[in-house]
């Protein structure tokens, strides 16, 4: 939800008069206080009581994601997470589903680059049944052969299907082109090559090595008494054992100098999808608050500079956005959009123009105030649910961000000045001369244009295996 400053109406303290833009943002969101304890088996537990709704949310985060996949077997972390609820030592997949449905309980699991997440939402009255069920799914999966076979087939179909959606494939091509052979360049869900190499033994090995209390964070938010919850968690998770696995070697990738371009030929494409970007920031970057303010204006909302130029004014695209993906080491900054084949050149030209304009002109104090109001106004509703709070606590713990640091970042966000903005643009946003560009489209029509945007050009066919 985007909130804008109100103009007009009676003049009141802290409000804007007619024709003015409010320069004082709303009071920033503050992450409530929560308790952090470490169980005897090494499991980190975070507890936040929230008694407005009789609902409890859990987020169990493992510090292992797809970067822990064995080389050549990318996708193991994702497959392991998706197979958790397909049967345990004491329950079949159907029995698990029936129990979840009986309680009206939401449950899910997935893997990203840095972590694996298992989440659950259930009513307070069902806590005594829900906690043992979640623990059983997490601690005692059996990965039945038939279920593994079905999931591998589904994953293989999905890997092939990604190539049918240029917008989905674009992200994987960009990450691989930017990070090359490093761990952050690999596809989190695997590809049609790596999935073929995965067997049940690989999934079991990944589970045994990574699903351990010493590697886990359990965040719980909602309507409970902390003392009682700790006792219940001890009963359900206390016998879980295992230390954290060895960490993979993560090396930060330096931002690319000059321009590099990858053209992925999709002969039947009627639209061109492209990304321009470079290496961005990590999850604990001290400037991330000010970066969020600047990116709101740059390409983070409908009225941003990028979307205004590409969609509202020129009509080249139905949407254009920019974002930073924060990871343990700096993730990518991307500007992504799509356009008709016939307007590929003008749309790419306009994107470069946006980059140059932002660096040359920046944004005004009034625009910064508007962005801060947007963020301050949207955060409370985004963070009001127990699941959002549990997710935030777990993410902060994963990246070593304390509650005080999290709240201090929001204060910094609200105090971002024009001087801060200028420094952020210079330090973190690539110039038009230093870009990694990935284009997915019909090469027969757009390839002649590509020499204008880079001399270092690589070409692939979308049907080629992998990314």
Describe this structure in words.
This protein is α+β, with helices and mostly antiparallel strands and 467 residues long. The longest helix is centred in the last third of the chain and has 19 residues, at 365-383. It is globular, with a radius of gyration of 24 Å. The chain has a six-stranded mixed sheet with strand order 1-2-6-3-5-4, with helices on both faces. Strands 9-10-8-11-7-12 form a six-stranded mixed sheet, with helices on both faces. The chain has two domains: 35-237, Metalloenzyme, LuxS/M16 peptidase-like (Cytochrome Bc1 Complex, Chain A, domain 1), CATH 3.30.830; 259-461, Metalloenzyme, LuxS/M16 peptidase-like (Cytochrome Bc1 Complex, Chain A, domain 1, 2-Layer Sandwich). It has helices at 76-83, 93-103, 127-139, 145-162, 166-179, 194-197, 200-210, 226-237, 288-300, 305-313, 344-361, 365-383, 386-398, 403-414, 418-428, 443-446, and strands at residues 35-38, 44-49, 55-62, 106-111, 116-123, 216-222, 259-265, 271-279, 320-324, 332-340, 435-441, 456-461. Helix 1 (76-83) crosses helix 7.
């Amino acid at each position: 939800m985007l909130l804008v400053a109100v103009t007009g109406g009676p003049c009141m303290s802290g409000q804007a008069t007619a024709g003015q833009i409010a320069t004082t943002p709303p009071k920033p969101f503050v992450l409530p206080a929560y308790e952090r304890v470490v169980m005897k088996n090494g499991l980190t537990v975070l507890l936040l009581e929230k008694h407005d709704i009789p609902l409890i949310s859990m987020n169990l985060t493992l510090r292992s994601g797809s970067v822990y996949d064995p080389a050549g077997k990318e996708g193991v972390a994702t497959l392991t997470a998706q197979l958790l609820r397909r049967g345990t030592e004491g329950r079949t997949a159907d029995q698990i589903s029936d129990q979840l449905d009986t309680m009206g309980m939401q449950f899910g699991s997935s893997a990203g680059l840095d972590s694996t997440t298992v989440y659950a939402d259930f009513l307070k009255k069902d806590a005594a049944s829900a906690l043992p069920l979640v623990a059983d799914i997490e601690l005692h999966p059996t990965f039945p052969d038939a279920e593994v076979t079905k999931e591998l087939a589904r994953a293989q179909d999905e890997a092939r299907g990604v190539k049918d959606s240029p917008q989905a494939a674009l992200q994987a091509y960009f990450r691989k082109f930017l990070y090359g052979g490093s761990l952050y360049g690999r596809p989190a869900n695997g590809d049609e090559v790596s999935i073929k190499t995965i067997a049940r033994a690989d999934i079991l090995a990944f589970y045994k090595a990574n699903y351990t209390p010493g590697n886990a964070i359990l965040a719980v938010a909602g309507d409970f008494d902390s003392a009682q919850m700790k006792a219940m968690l001890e009963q359900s998770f206390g016998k879980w054992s295992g230390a954290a696995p060895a960490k993979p070697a993560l090396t930060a990738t330096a931002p690319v100098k000059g321009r590099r371009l990858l053209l992925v030929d999709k002969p039947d494409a009627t639209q061109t999808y492209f990304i321009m970007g470079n290496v961005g920031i990590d999850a604990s970057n001290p400037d991330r608050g000010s970066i969020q303010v600047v990116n709101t204006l740059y390409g983070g909302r409908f009225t941003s500079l990028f979307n205004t130029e590409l969609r509202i004014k020129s009509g080249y695209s139905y949407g254009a956005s920019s974002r930073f993906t924060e990871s343990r080491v700096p993730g990518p900054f991307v500007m992504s959009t799509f356009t008709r084949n016939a307007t590929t050149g003008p749309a790419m030209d306009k994107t470069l123009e946006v980059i140059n304009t932002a660096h040359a002109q920046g944004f005004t104090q009034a625009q910064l105030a508007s962005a801060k109001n947007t963020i301050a106004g949207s955060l409370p509703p985004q963070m009001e649910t127990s699941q959002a709070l549990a997710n935030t606590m777990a993410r902060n713990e994963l990246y070593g961000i304390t509650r005080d640091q999290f709240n201090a970042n929001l204060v910094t966000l609200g105090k971002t000045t024009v001087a801060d903005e200028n420094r952020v643009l210079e330090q973190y946003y690539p110039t038009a001369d230093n870009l990694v560009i990935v284009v997915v489209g019909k090469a027969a029509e757009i390839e002649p244009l590509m020499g204008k945007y880079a001399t270092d050009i690589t070409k692939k066919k979308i049907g080629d295996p992998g990314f």
